[in-house]
């Protein structure tokens, strides 16, 4: 499972891809970096970030859905750390569901094999 540091590094890489190396070389991206004040991300750049997040994490990390749950002030105040935390919650929940499904499938297969053998 990816750590907070791993996810922050991935988001930073995505931001470099969107905004360009020159911008981010001067501006270190941290958990407290804001998308609005520090990075001046525009809506089209949020769309590009959403696409990169989808490519990396799949449909479970829905940036536009995450933003839709916030009011304008919360969107303007959102930090990279807020997104990293969201990704952590979503990916942990997804991993838990996958583990649960695998355990259930194993239990069913074992029960089926026991019935067949007996």
Automatic annotation (TrEMBL):
Residues 2-91 form the Carrier domain. Signal peptide: none annotated. This is Carrier domain-containing protein. SUPFAM superfamilies: ACP-like. It comes from the Bacteria. Transmembrane segments: none annotated.
């Amino acid at each position: 499972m990816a750590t907070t540091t791993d996810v922050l590094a991935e988001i930073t890489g995505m931001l470099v891809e969107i905004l360009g190396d020159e911008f981010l070389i001067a501006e270190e991206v941290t958990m407290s970096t804001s998308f609005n004040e520090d990075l001046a991300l525009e809506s089209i750049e949020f769309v590009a970030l959403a696409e990169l997040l989808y490519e990396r994490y799949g449909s479970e990390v829905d940036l536009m859905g995450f933003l839709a749950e916030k009011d304008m002030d919360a969107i303007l105040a959102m930090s990279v750390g807020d997104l990293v935390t969201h990704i952590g919650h979503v990916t942990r929940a997804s991993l838990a569901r996958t583990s649960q499904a695998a355990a259930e499938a194993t239990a069913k297969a074992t029960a089926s094999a026991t019935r067949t053998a007996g």
